[in-house]
Amino acid sequence: MDAALPIVVAGALVGFAVGLTGMGGGAFMTPIMVMVFGVNPTAAIGSDLAASVFMKPFGALVHQRAGTVRWDIVRRLLPTAVPAAFGGVFLLRALGDGDDLEQRVTYVVGTALMLAVAGMLARMWLDRRRAAEAEEAGEDAEVPVRPVATLLIGLVGGVIVGMTSVGSGSLIIVMLMLAHPRLRANHLVGTDLVQAIPMVAAAALGHLLVGDADLGLAATLLIGAVPGVVAGSLVSSRVSGSAVRWALVVLLTGSGLSMLKASSTVILLGCLAMALLGTLTAVRDRRSVRSAAAETADTAEPAGALGPR
Predict the structure, then answer these.
(1) pTM
(2) According to the model, what pLDDT value does residue 309 have?
(3) How much is the pLDDT for 1?
(4) What is the 3-state secondary structure (H, E, C) of the chain?
């Protein structure tokens, strides 16, 4: 394949982003394959899912060893997520065939990407709220599972993943945060990674059966993606997570609007709006940190004044 090296590089970049942020790779890889490499949208979705089947276990194994997987939540997600992901493939096929199908799939993926942007914004907002409330209520690793809500999350998330390959790691984890607001962050990530393995495998199997997945393309992606995930995981503790997430929000906004065939002006304005929002958020966070440091210093000063002279 003439484009093998660029695809390996793209896989490495996506893997690095996944390892750095914990977000699923479908939101990055599918639009890259469609817009950069000219792969048909259905083939891009199927190939990305096939590659994800081999990527997910790396992170899941780490969380299993660390004991940060809520198996009771996983067991509630899978009865709906697995069949929904498999059925989502055939629901996608119901949109038509030939060029009409590819055009409609482009819009479906674009919509899923914009949902992923909304999911990332919601996740950052929820993370901030959880941090602010941690001292009062605290996080709880043993918070009880909400069975009906969890089954519905599996159903909705599975259909979206099966149709677009987007949602595992971006949309599902946000829905889990809303359903279980006191659950620890690392348990949310570990649980989402583990449940994603059979769900993504079911979606990948469906795409293989209908002839969408290109196993050669998936293998080429994995050559770069696997070391990329490892490298991103190692770097994640040394880089500002907030800055990385906002950069990804800007990129996903541009990708989603492009897939939706928006004009260049709309794409530019959308990206600028997200960049401005991220900048304002960063400035506000710095001011909050400085104010907290100043208050701490003011509180500590009288205590020092009472010491021996």
Answers:
(1) 0.78
(2) 44
(3) 46
(4) CCCHHHHHHHHHHHHHHHHHHCCCCHHHHHHHHHHCCCCCHHHHHHHHHHHHHHHHHHHHHHHHHHCCCCHHHHHHHHHHHHHHHHHHHHHHHCCCCHHHHHHHHHHHHHHHHHHHHHHHHHHHHHHHHHHHHCCCCCCCCCCCCCHHHHHHHHHHHHHHHHHHCCCCCCHHHHHHHHHCCCCCHHHHHHHHHHHHHHHHHHHHHHHHHCCCCCHHHHHHHHHHHHHHHHHHHHHHHHCCHHHHHHHHHHHHHHHHHHHCCCCHHHHHHHHHHHHHHHHHHHHHHHHHHHHHHHHHHHHHHHHHHCCCC
Are 16 and 236 in contact, with CB atoms under 8 Å apart?
Answer: no
What's the distance, CA 17 to chain centroid?
10
